[in-house]
Amino acid sequence: MENSKNTLTADASLLHLRKEIDAIDDRILELLNQRARFAQQVADIKTAGGEVDCFHRPEREAEVLRRIAENNRGPLSQEAVVRFFRELMSECLALEKPLSVAFLGPQGTFTQQAAYKHFGHAIEAVPLPTIDEIFRAVESGACQYGVVPVENSTEGVITHTLDSFLRSFLLIAGEVGLRIHHNLMSKLNTSSEVREVFSHQQSLAQCRRWLDRYLPKAQNTAVSSNAEAARLAAVMPQTAAIAGDVAAELYGLNVLERNIEDEPDNTTRFLVIGRNSVGPTGNDKTSLLLSTRNNPGALYAVLEPFAKYGISMTKIESRPSRRGAWDYVFFVDVEGHRDDPRLAEALNAVEKNVTMLKILGSYPRASC
Ligand SMILES: O=C(O)C(=O)C[C@]1(C(=O)O)C=C[C@@H](O)C=C1
Fold first, then answer.
1. Last residue of a domain, one of 53, 74, 94
2. CA 38 to ligand 1: nearest atom
3. Where residue 87 sits, what CATH number does that domain have?
4. Domain of 248, in residue numbers
5. Would the pLDDT of 324 be above 70?
6. Domain check: are 15 and 88 in the same one?
7. Is 47 among the catalytic positions?
8. Atom of ligand 1 nearest to the CA of 88
9. For range 313-332, the mean pLDDT
10. Which end of the chain is more exposed for a tag (fewer CB within 10 A), N or C?
């Protein structure tokens, strides 16, 4: 008797709560569309101002996401609300004019994941087979943005991406950090029958200890991308691939082992490249390319103004300049936007001591 009374009150409560949820959903739906209509009006103003190509405003998006994260009182996590609003802005922008974003393909790569994390899913994501082709697609205007990997916490920099900036006029418009989890996947149901493992060379390197320990007899074969590895594993018997979740889903593979990367905080940083500069947001980074005379103390003299003006340098990487043997260029990341007065003064001082200074872009720091 007591039990059935409890069930009745629980059912009534459930009914009541679901009615409340329905009413809130209706209000949210109305507000979402009201917001979208305002975004359409913003587009009209941009069009009237002569904008034809790119309606995207990264600095405004960064401001919206920061305000939402600051105002969030939970129980939804900061990450969750940022993700919702990222998708909401992506859909609003798609109503204005969808963005076309080139990424290192094929479908299912971590670079595609990074593109969606940065721009949301309402984009035209264009898979291209090489970093060079991504630069060319954005340079020619075929795509508005490109997303390319630039460094991994285990394996270091992707030199091809850095070298591409030596000859390109493109600017960095953003950065994306992605935690990389590698999985062993196959048509097989157990890893004991795997004779060959495909993956991108970087991913094989990131899982080297695991492979040596658990699949010492399997041949490791480097291919052009993790997604290509998954495609091959789907058609070649007794093989497996190392790739992310999306690739397993896309190619119908069983995930045999999860998170097999050697370093638990394996992270890859991606750059967003575009043709336009991004305005300041108050939480920015600036990337520079510079070269010095090849004499003692030259690099010290170049970097000294950053210390003098209190600018934090977050990274320095040297690469051959391709102008002659033992001639180097430096990729430097500093905190702040090139329009911040202190950074602008420091850059003026740096310019006096270098043989070349190219500002590759100021852009919002990656959010969570
Ligand atoms: O504020 C704008 O310029 C808009 O176009 C609106 C909006 C948004 O949905 O909030 C959409 C796309 C832009 O990239 C930035 C913001």
1. 94
2. 6
3. 1.20.59.10
4. 183-257
5. no
6. yes
7. no
8. 9
9. 80
10. N
Please tell me the least confidently modeled range out of 22-26, 47-51, 68-72: 47-51
328 versus 330: the higher-pLDDT residue is 330
Non-local CB neighbours of 251 within 8 Å, separated by 6+ positions:
108, 185, 227, 230, 231, 233, 234
Model confidence pTM above 0.90: no
Instruction: Select from 34, 60, 119 the residue to mutate for testing ligand 1; criterion: most ligand atoms less than 8 Å from CB.
Output: 60
Which protein residue has the closest C-alpha to ligand 1 atom 7? Answer: 89
CA distance 367 to 179: 13
d(CA 327, CA 179): 35
Are 62 and 116 spatial neighbours (Cβ–Cβ below 8 Å)?
no
Nearest CA among 87, 25, 56, 93 for reference residue 277:
56
**What spacing in Å lies between the alpha carbon of 105 and ligand 1's midpoint?**
27
* ipTM for the assembly: 0.98
AA letter at 25: D
Q: Which of 268, 281, 286, 292 is catalytic?
A: 268
pLDDT mean across residues, the chain: 92
Residues within a 6 A CB radius of ligand 1: 39, 42, 55-57, 60-61, 64, 89, 92-93, 96
Find the mean pLDDT for residues 90-107: 92
Atom of ligand 1 nearest to the CA of 92: 9
Q: Is 342 within a domain?
A: yes
First to last CA, the chain: 52
Give backbone dihedrals phi and psi of 101, rounded to 5 degrees, phi first. Answer: -125, 120
Burial class (CB in 10 A: 0-12, 13-18, 19+), 301: middle
User: In this structure, is residue 262 part of a structural domain?
Assistant: no
Distance separating alpha carbons of residues 202 and 236, to the nearest angstrom: 22
**CA of 122 relative to ligand 1 center, distance in Å:** 13
